[in-house]
Amino acid sequence: MRGSLQPLDLGIQIPYHFRCPISLELMTDPVTVSTGQTYDRNSIESWVNTGNTTCPVTRANLTDFTFIPNHTLRRLIQEWCVANRAFGVQRIPTPKQPADSALVRSLLNQCSSHSAPTQMRLNSLRRLRSLARDSDYNRSLIGSLNVRHVLLPIVFDYNGLDEMKYESLGLLVLFPLSESECSSVASDSDKINYLTSLLSHSLFDVRVNSAALIEIIVAGTHSAEIRSQVSNVDGIYDGVIEILKNPISYPRALKIGIKALFALCLVKQTRHRAVAAGAPAVLVDRLADFEKCDAERALATVELLCRVPDGCAAFASHALTVPMLVKIILKISDRATEYAAGALMALCSESERCQREAVTAGVLTQLLLLVQSDCTERAKRKAQLLLKLLRDSWPQDSVGNSNDFACSHFD
């Protein structure tokens, strides 16, 4: 609806009772809760899924979590949209009905039945995947019915039909795995080798889903030894990094790719493999394409790889690394600033050329502003250390103008 609501800035006011009390946006699928209040389905489902058990407006406890479609209000909203179409307001789409638990159980039974026809099992998997994509409510319902126990055996049935395995994989990555499930998969070399082989599959969707499952498994395994075994598998870094090279027309690939790369790079012993696979160049080239949260992960990965001598050298040799890191300071978020400052500290500690590049890119002003900002204490500490390191590289007039910042504090 975002595109259709933009023309409302011309003077069209959304009636108060058409707005969701949570999002304050025009409701597209109004539902009524047990207290009698009406909300947009996506908003109230998100509210409940984050652990809230009260009505956002009345603060009364919700006696049940059944959301009843408010067809009358939806019809009124639709009529209002039609009446104001001359102002660019579009009809709201017909909402998809939430999944029924009996239907989900039936589909899961069909998926897990070895006696059922293959096409029926495949169609059931596709239907479940479609339902899971429709809404948070559907995913929560499907997840509560032990879908993982059905899907894991299918994904790793090496004698099974490939199409079944790939469809199961695409559905499985929509749900979190328990620690025991993650450890069970991660400690099985055959399963990890199989997932790694899928990173070079001809179907790009299969490659991305494989990377997603690898990230879930590595992030959900607490054993450092097992995580190290996974990240040390030949080709695993190469496959994940190839996904990051995909054109930005497929944004999910960027999101999954950087999550997987970051999870693998948390294993200190195998970071050199990420460097050898070309991670530094890809990270710098893609940095501007990431959304905020993913940009933070990317910068955290840059800082981790800068702690490896080969990684530091690779980043230092890329012409855009230092200018981009300088530009990011105070631009994206406090975390991004902290990671960028840490990476610059590592690079400038090893290379005088990087020091000169940082100064030329305007790092002095950025660091002085950072020290005075409300950023994290760790970021300020890194900025102070970097200022001290770069003192000999400062232009003379900048040194003179920096007295107000008490730079002697960094000695």
From TrEMBL:
Catalytic activity, reaction form: S-ubiquitinyl-[E2 ubiquitin-conjugating enzyme]-L-cysteine + [acceptor protein]-L-lysine = [E2 ubiquitin-conjugating enzyme]-L-cysteine + N(6)-ubiquitinyl-[acceptor protein]-L-lysine
Record-linked Gene3D superfamilies: Leucine-rich Repeat Variant (1.25.10.10), Zinc/RING finger domain, C3HC4 (zinc finger) (3.30.40.10)
SUPFAM superfamilies: ARM repeat, RING/U-box
Functional pathway: Protein modification; protein ubiquitination
Listed GO MF terms: ubiquitin protein ligase activity
EC number from the UniProt entry: 2.3.2.27
Alphabetical list of Pfam families matching this protein: ARM_PUB, U-box
Keyword set includes Transferase: yes
Primary enzyme class: transferase
CDD domains membership: RING-Ubox_PUB (cd16664)
Function in brief: Functions as an E3 ubiquitin ligase.
Keywords annotated in UniProt: Transferase, Ubl conjugation pathway
SMART domains xref list: Ubox
Protein name: U-box domain-containing protein
Record-linked InterPro entries: ARM-like (IPR011989), ARM-type_fold (IPR016024), ARM_PUB (IPR058678), PUB22/23/24-like (IPR045185), RING-Ubox_PUB (IPR045210), Ubox_domain (IPR003613), Znf_RING/FYVE/PHD (IPR013083)
Record-annotated U-box domain positions: 13-87
One of the GO BP terms on file: defense response
